Amino acid sequence: MADNSNTLTVNIVTPDGLVYDHHATMVIVRSVDGDLGIMANHEPIVTPLQIGEVHVRRIDNPGHEDLIAVNGGFMEVSDNVASIVADSAERERDIDLSRAQAARDRAEKEIQAAQSQHDSDELQRAQIALQRAINRINVKNGR
After folding, report:
1. pLDDT of residue 5
2. In terms of Cα–Cα distance, which of 3, 24, 20 is closest to 11?
3. pTM of the full predicted structure?
4. Who contacts 70 (Cβ-Cβ below 8 Å, separation ≥6)?
5. Which residues contact 30 (CB under 8 A, 6 or more apart)?
6. With bands split at pLDDT 50, 70 and 90, how would you rate the model's confidence at 1?
7. What pLDDT is recorded for position 63?
8. Which domains does the chain carry?
9. pLDDT reported for residue 2
10. What is d(CA 56, CA 37) in angstroms, rounded to the nearest whole number?
11. Where are the beta strands (DSSP E) in the chain?
């Protein structure tokens, strides 16, 4: 049996189910306090996440990083398992670039409309939609 003391299991779950589950040497997330790099044997931690990319350095392909677009949520690390719970998450290979670009364009128009109408609630919603769309585009393009 392989020695798992330097292995971190990374799983990402949304309300729709499991999006990602692999063994890794490291996972990098964007927390509300900045970027965090987590390796095996890390102390237990729970942290809220921003809209951002999750980078996973897989054990089975050391020169490759999997990229996953995550729209907020939180990460818990304990016993060499990094569990990310998010409202939505998409792997790089599953992102439809044209849909993401259309969502970006739509959000930019909604921002302009909200600004002209001085609608702060709509402005905030459109800004979040823009962040999500840009995050998906960046992940798909490998930034």
Report:
1. 72
2. 20
3. 0.87
4. 12, 29, 49, 51, 52, 53, 54, 84, 86, 88, 89, 135
5. 36, 49, 50, 51, 52, 53, 54
6. very low
7. 81
8. 8-92 (2.60.15.10), 96-140 (1.20.5)
9. 45
10. 10
11. 8-14, 17-31, 34-39, 45-58, 65-78, 81-85, 89-91
CB 55 within 8 A of CB 90: no
Residue 80 tokens, joined: 């060499």
Is 70 exceeded by the pLDDT of residue 105?
yes
Instruction: Please answer whether residues 40 and 10 qualify as being in contact, where contact means their C-beta atoms are separated by less than 8 angstroms.
Output: no
Reported as a pLDDT band with limits 50, 70 and 90, residue 55 is very high
DSSP 8-class letter at 43:
P
Distance between CA atoms of residues 26 and 49, nearest Å: 17
Tokens of 72: 């907020």
